[in-house]
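Tutorial handout. Part one gives the primary structure; part two gives the three-dimensional structure as tokens.
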Amino acid sequence: MQSLLRYIPGRLLGPVAALCVWCGAALGADHFVVPGSAPGGDGSAAQPWSSIAEAFGNGVVNSGDTIHLAEGDYGAVTLQGLAYDQLVTLRAAPGTLARFSRLVLDRTRNVAIDGITLWPDPGSGGGGALVSETGQGNVLRNLDIRGRQAADMYTSWSAQDWRMDPRVGAKLMGSHSILENSRLTGLAEGLGIIGPDATVIGNTFRGFGGDAIRIVGDGALVRFNNIADCVKISENHDDGIQAWARGPDGRAGQGVLSGVTIDANTILEWTGPPDHPLRCSLQGIGLFDGMFEDLTISNNVVSVSAYHGISVAGAVNARIVNNTVVNAVQISRKGPWIQLADHKNGTPTLDSLVANNIAPRFLGGDTVRAANRFEGNHVVIYPVRDLEQDADGAWRLHPDGRLRGLSDPLSTPPTDRTGQRRDPSDGLDPGAFEGS
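Part two.
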């Protein structure tokens, strides 16, 4: 029996509660791995296994068990064909650095990786994803995924440094995969969500040279993530979050992507030195190649300088509600905008709602407006008049501002950017945050 508990949008859970995705799993045995110890141990604290391969090679590990990894360099780790009824967890010992150069979960089921640090070996080349996952119900938790060891120094890298060994942080190709509470830093691309029903929640993406998150898997939930600092190192039109539908041949815009929820994320184009030569002009949330069915984009804060703040082209039953979009660099009536458009091939967008948002501009042609609803949106050209930035750079309404209480209760989501309940008793607020 699979032990995953998937977060359902609309439940009144805060970020901490939502992150507890395997609470309630049966407690199993504890095992220990210490690199360099004598082979032939029994996996106990007194006689630990010498490697991860030894841990899984003797048939001792069972569903619900935890394998504790001591500090050390484990190199490239591949786990293949492991299947359990409950999560088996590989966990770095508290306060230690257990480092992988790469992680591959190949056709595994209910395997969790917790607290590991990953960066490629210097000069290894080859690119590719540092974490690659297939199978079912795998969990990646509290990871520190870096494009190189000193990835926090990405603002000092030159364009040549960025192009020397470009890496993708992770690819989730299995079903019901989870990436939570992890850091992805200094990467050419952050994350690819390819398999169905993935949950990506509570992660931080900082310093990326393309898109932070790409979604092509049905049923993805992308929530409570913080995305910041895009650098321009290629001709890619960089997005904080991008998604597209794929046909049988894999071509974009040929099929249907369904059931995606993008909720309560913060996307900041840049937080580093304002005159940095590699600062990109970022697009916020771009879904340009539908069709998209049963799509929800809500409670997001987007601060970018490209035209597309939030754009969807080709949708049925989409809800774009209570988002806050501002221009990251200047006062502008041109953008960034929130846009609802028909598919590039002319297929109309239908039965969709754009409501209670804040942005410099809203776009939706006459044919789109005839089949959809634009309600209760607010044009804000001068952000500082109506909004203020919190310590994390996100934009909130002024406590006594003119927009307070102007969100339509019928189309307001039950929770806000923080995951807290929106209380209708005192009026509901447009944009991503409720209250001060």
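Part three, for discussion. The first strand starts at residue 30 and ends at 33. Confidence is low (pLDDT under 50) at residues 1-26.
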